[in-house]
Structures are given as structure tokens and as C-alpha cells.
């Protein structure tokens, strides 16, 4: 074959400046693209052999990555299918653009390297993101094929001649430019290969590494080891998600979790093996980690692969937001390797995949709940946050989760939403037929209010998680007919669940007015609204509460519930003075000085029970208490 020179058929002189300039920020993906191409070439020869279209020895398929810091080259080699000169001209020299205008117009909309490369088929040409010159030396598997050598210096001109390769396969040699010398580093290349090639289906070798192997025993009979150089194989070619679930045991799933996240010490609670081939192809394993009782960006994200090539761990466009709390792997060839966010948002398969994953997760949770409710309840503290998050953000998930979502009361008893409604629908009904769910957000701090509720025979839920303010609203909407949720400390108990029986006020109208004036003066705070109420004589003399609606809106504002207006409003408390309590009667009948001191003491006690008495007010309370003893 004589040397041939020509022009790459891309219909525009602007392609290489575009690649070099605009793809620079994502330039590490050149290695992913070229290694993926080498893997594809290796798999093709294996496929041809299985079809009887190649009768030679396939041999051990390996992709080699090498670099020469002095020569400033990176070489990606494979022993795959190889290419003839004609195939190089067909697949490398012709980039299918219908014209320069179309390319430049479409490029204006592209925001990142993945999008441009994926949209225009520039996988191989990503090499020019880091190289001034690229060479290909290839020998096709075909009988009698002649080795071919191609070289391009980053312009639209190329040269093709007889190659030097004597064995089947392809070498791609990159002559690294001055701006990209960072890639002439063993550490940097290892980092990129670990990221993108960790589970490729063909072995990827990157030089050697030091390992230890047994070397007999010492004089005391203890085993000795010696250091040896072995091939540095980057990847596990047959990761757990590529196998059938029937092939795997629990220890295999746990071992794969540690392989995915080597710096994680906690084991997952359980997992879901995804395996579907219609109407789209999807495999993967999702793990349920132990979730702390707080919403946080997970360090170990779900990783998205395409045919075992890592794409990204930013999967929010393919995985519903609440599932981002899970860990694991999703692999789908229906998602192109060079995926872009705009593609994910527009692709129909992505929505189907998202719906499928939601269904599989809900089905798995329901299966565990039905087969082992006791075990499910034991895991609830670790998975409850995730399930509530899903119910609040995904209606289809919520429909199924209503069957296994649990609520817990202060006695530590667990109920499904339906079970709890049946438990309290008669006891907690008010005079208007509303079913009032009493709940606590801090059982220790609100213990006095809980005790009062229990004394009346009421049950109290524990809703103390970061999403429970929002979940309380969900329960009101979906928990059953005429359900209302009220925090146990948002008013005195007889006001929270009002019955038909009416309690008469023992104070006269004049005494009631005097009590109101005395407490208002003693408290002397604009954020406290004093009201004298007719309550049972054994109720507390003074209670300090925050209205349920206002408090809930303010809590939602703190957790980003779109209630920012309420979050900016000052707290405004209700001070309920029990007009039927003996202490209030005594205060009304005392001298002005004594009455004010007693009123202040009773109010401070109420504040203390709420954890609202601090600083100088607490110091004064302690001093006053000592004086009164």
C-alpha cells in the first residue's frame, strides 16, 4: 500500500478548534472514549469467533494503557478486531455531518463535552482534546490483511500508509500537548481508569503493581511473604450486577457493595437486583444504606453505567429524587455512553426506567413487610426517612407505601397508617367528628403535655424526624376521613380535643379580668398573649403553647417547605391561665406584690417545662425559688 494523503470529511475547518477549546473542561473523558473503543473492538472479535466468522485463536483479550513521560505519549492498545486502511478511512475520516452550518448551529446549544461528543459521534476525536498529533497503527483480523498506519496533526489533513503492527488489533498513540501534561502521570491515569473503567467487560491493564505472595516460613514457623511485580488489572470484568440473581448469595452482594464503596464501614440493610430486558434493557443493584435521621447529600451516590462503562453519578434525571438516598449501580445500554442532561430530560426510555425503579423499590419494601414484619419494624428507624421522603415526593410510590409505612407512638408500638386510624378513630374524636392525631416532636421536652394526654386516655404519636412536619400534613390528607394532626404541646389538652362536656369557670368575671391583668403585668412580654380559661382543676395552672398552624408553617419554612413568609414572622405564644386551679385563685386573692411574684413564678415554671427559660430569666427563677422555699 502506497502512502495516501487526504482531507477528513467533516465539511468544516472548525471541528478541531471546537474540540480543543470547548471540550477542555471535561478533557479526561478522552481516555474513557478510547478505552471503550478498544473494549468494543475486543468484544467484536469474540463475537465473530462465536458466530464462526473468525477461525483463528482469540487468545486472552486485554486492553493496555501505557504512557511515556519523556516521549509525551499515551498509547491505548487492544488485540481486538483491528482495521484495514479502507475501514480507517470509512470510520475515522468521515464524520457524518450534513454540513458545516448544521454542526455550528447545533453546537451553540451544547453545554458540555459529553453532549457535543454524544451528539456528533466524536468519540475518537476526543483524543484531540489533549493531543497535538494522533496515530493509529492497526492490523485487521481478516486473512491477508495489511497493517495500516494513520496519522493526523489536529488539522483536517491526514496521512495513511503501511503500518508496523504484526498482530491483530489496534494501537492509538496520542502525542500529548503542552496544556495536557497532567495526563503524563501514573497517578492521574490510574485515577481516570479507576473512575471509568472499573467494571469494563474486557481486562484493562495499566502497567504493573507490587503485590505480595507467600515465600515459605521463617525460623519460628511463621509465614513469610515476598514482593513481586504483577499486572495492574484495573477492572472486575464480571461485576455482580451482570450476573443472574440466582447466581449470587448474600455475601456476594455485600462484597460488591464494599467493592463499590471501599471507604464505607456500614453494611447495607438490604438490596434490590434490577434485571429487565423489555421494553428497555436495564440491570443493576440498589442498596438501602442505614440513613441517619437527617437529610444529607449522600457521599456514596448511585452510579450510572452504559454497557459497564461508567457515565456519571449525577443521576437525578433518571432516578427519582427520593431514591438518591440509595446506593448502587444502574446499567442500561439504552442510555448512550455520551449522555447529556438535555438528552436525559428528553428521552422517553429515561421516564420508563424511572417508573420501573420506583415500582421495584416499592415492591421490594412491601415484600419485606409482608414476609417479615418484625424485621421490617426493626429496620424502620433506618428506612423510615427514605420511605417518607418517597411518599412526599412521588405519588405512585406513596400509593404502595401506604400499605407498609409505619407510625410509632410514645409506647414504642408500630402501626400502618390504616391500623392507626382504626385504633384512635373513636377515642380521639372531638365533638365535631374530627379524628385528632396527637403527636410529639420531642418526647423528653414535651413529657408533661404527653402525660396530660395519656391521663385523658389519648394516644400520642412520635413524629420527630426532619420530614415529619411535612409528613403530618400528608397524614391529614391521606391518613383517613376527617383526620387532623395537632402537636401535643400546641394547646391545653381539652382544647386540642374538644368534647361536648363544658367546664364552668369558678372565677367571677371580675376575678378573671384581674387574673389576666396580673399575669400580663408579671410576664411583661409582647410575644405572650394571656388568656384565662375554664379547665379541669387538676390541669396545670399555667401553660405556654404555640398555635399548631403557625408552628407547623414555621417548621416547614426551616426545612424548605416553601413557607418562607412564615419563617420570618416572630413567635407568638399563647399563655393559658387555668381559672379553676387553686393557685390562680390564691394569686387573685393575694396582695399586688405577692400576686405578681406568684404569677411570675407560675409562668416561669411553664416556660421551664417547654425548655424556653434560659439566661438571666433562668437565673432569676432559681433565685426566686430559693427565696420562696
From TrEMBL:
Q: Which UniProt keywords apply?
A: ATP-binding, Chaperone, Nucleotide-binding
Supply the InterPro entries for this chain: HATPase_C_sf, HATPase_dom, HSP90_C, Hsp90_fam, Hsp90_N, Ribosomal_Su5_D2-typ_SF
Instruction: Note the SUPFAM superfamilies from the entry.
Output: ATPase domain of HSP90 chaperone/DNA topoisomerase II/histidine kinase, HSP90 C-terminal domain, Ribosomal protein S5 domain 2-like
- Annotated ranges, domain Histidine kinase/HSP90-like ATPase: 26-180
Pfam family membership, one = HATPase_c_3
Top-level division of the source organism's lineage: Bacteria
Q: Which Gene3D superfamilies match?
A: 3.30.230.80, 3.40.50.11260, Heat shock protein 90, C-terminal domain, Histidine kinase-like ATPase, C-terminal domain
Q: Which family does it belong to?
A: Belongs to the heat shock protein 90 family.
Q: What is this protein called?
A: Molecular chaperone HtpG
Amino acid at each position: 500500500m502506497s502512502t495516501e494523503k487526504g482531507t477528513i470529511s467533516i465539511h468544516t475547518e472548525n471541528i478541531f478548534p471546537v474540540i480543543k477549546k470547548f471540550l477542555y473542561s471535561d478533557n479526561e473523558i478522552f481516555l474513557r472514549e478510547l478505552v471503550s473503543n478498544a473494549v468494543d473492538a475486543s468484544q467484536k472479535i469474540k463475537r465473530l469467533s462465536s458466530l464462526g466468522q473468525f477461525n483463528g485463536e482469540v487468545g486472552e483479550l486485554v486492553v493496555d494503557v501505557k504512557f511515556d513521560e519523556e516521549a509525551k505519549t499515551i498509547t491505548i492498545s487492544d488485540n481486538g478486531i483491528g482495521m484495514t486502511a479502507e475501514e480507517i478511512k470509512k470510520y475515522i475520516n468521515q464524520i457524518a455531518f450534513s454540513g458545516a452550518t448544521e454542526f455550528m448551529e447545533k453546537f451553540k446549544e451544547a453545554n458540555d463535552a459529553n453532549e457535543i461528543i454524544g451528539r456528533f459521534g466524536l468519540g475518537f476525536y476526543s483524543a484531540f482534546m489533549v493531543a497535538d498529533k494522533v496515530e493509529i497503527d492497526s492490523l485487521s483480523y481478516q486473512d491477508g490483511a495489511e497493517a495500516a498506519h494513520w496519522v493526523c496533526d489536529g488539522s483536517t489533513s491526514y496521512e495513511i500508509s503501511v503500518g508496523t503492527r504484526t498482530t491483530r488489533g489496534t494501537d492509538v498513540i496520542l502525542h500529548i500537548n503542552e496544556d495536557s501534561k497532567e495526563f503524563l502521570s501514573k497517578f492521574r491515569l490510574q485515577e481516570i481508569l479507576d473512575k471509568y473503567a472499573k467494571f469494563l467487560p474486557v481486562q484493562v491493564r495499566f502497567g504493573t503493581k507490587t503485590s505480595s505472595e507467600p515465600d515459605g516460613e521463617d525460623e519460628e514457623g511463621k509465614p513469610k511473604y515476598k514482593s513481586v511485580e504483577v499486572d495492574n488489572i484495573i477492572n472486575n470484568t464480571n461485576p455482580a450486577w451482570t450476573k443472574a440473581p440466582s447466581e449470587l448469595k448474600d455475601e456476594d452482594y455485600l462484597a460488591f457493595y464494599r467493592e463499590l464503596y471501599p471507604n464505607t464501614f456500614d453494611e447495607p440493610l438490604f438490596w434490590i437486583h434490577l434485571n429487565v430486558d423489555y421494553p428497555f434493557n436495564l440491570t443493576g443493584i440498589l442498596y438501602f444504606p442505614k440513613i441517619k435521621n437527617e437529610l444529607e447529600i449522600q457521599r456514596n451516590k448511585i452510579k450510572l453505567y452504559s454497557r459497564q462503562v461508567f457515565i456519571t453519578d449525577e443521576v437525578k434525571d433518571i432516578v427519582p429524587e427520593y431514591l438518591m438516598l440509595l446506593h448502587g449501580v444502574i446499567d442500561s445500554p439504552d442510555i448512550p455512553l455520551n449522555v447529556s442532561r438535555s438528552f436525559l430530560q428528553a428521552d422517553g426510555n429515561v421516564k420508563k426506567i424511572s417508573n420501573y425503579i420506583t415500582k421495584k423499590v416499592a415492591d421490594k419494601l412491601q415484600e419485606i413487610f409482608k414476609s417479615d414484619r418484625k424485621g421490617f419494624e426493626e429496620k424502620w428507624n433506618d428506612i423510615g426517612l427514605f420511605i417518607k421522603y418517597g411518599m412526599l415526593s412521588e405519588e405512585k410510590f406513596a400509593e404502595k407505601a401506604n400499605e407498609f409505612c409505619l407510625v410509632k407512638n410514645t409506647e414504642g408500638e408500630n402501626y400502618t397508617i390504616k391500623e392507626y386510624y382504626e385504633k384512635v378513630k373513636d377515642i380521639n374524636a372531638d365533638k365535631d367528628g374530627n379524628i385528632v392525631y396527637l403527636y410529639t416532636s420531642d418526647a423528653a421536652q414535651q413529657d408533661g403535655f404527653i402525660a396530660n394526654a395519656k391521663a385523658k386516655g389519648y394516644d400520642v404519636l412520635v413524629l420527630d424526624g426532619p420530614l415529619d412536619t411535612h409528613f403530618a400534613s400528608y397524614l391529614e390528607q391521606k391518613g383517613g376521613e376527617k383526620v387532623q394532626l395537632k402537636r401535643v404541646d400546641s394547646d391545653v389538652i381539652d382544647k386540642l380535643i374538644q368534647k361536648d362536656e363544658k367546664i364552668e369557670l369558678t372565677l367571677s368575671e371580675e376575678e378573671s379580668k384581674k387574673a389576666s391583668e396580673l399575669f400580663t403585668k408579671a410576664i411583661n412580654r409582647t410575644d405572650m398573649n394571656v388568656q384565662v380559661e375554664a379547665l379541669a382543676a387538676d390541669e396545670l395552672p399555667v401553660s405556654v403553647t404555640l398555635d399548631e398552624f403557625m408552628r407547623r408553617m414555621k417548621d416547614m419554612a426551616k426545612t424548605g417547605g416553601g413557607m418562607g413568609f412564615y419563617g420570618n414572622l416572630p413567635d407568638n405564644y399563647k399563655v393559658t391561665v387555668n381559672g379553676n386551679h387553686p393557685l390562680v385563685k390564691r394569686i387573685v386573692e393575694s396582695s399586688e406584690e405577692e400576686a405578681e411574684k406568684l404569677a411570675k413564678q407560675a409562668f416561669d415554671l411553664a416556660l421551664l417545662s417547654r425548655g424556653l427559660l434560659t439566661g438571666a430569666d433562668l437565673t432569676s427563677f432559681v433565685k426566686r425559688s430559693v427565696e420562696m422555699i
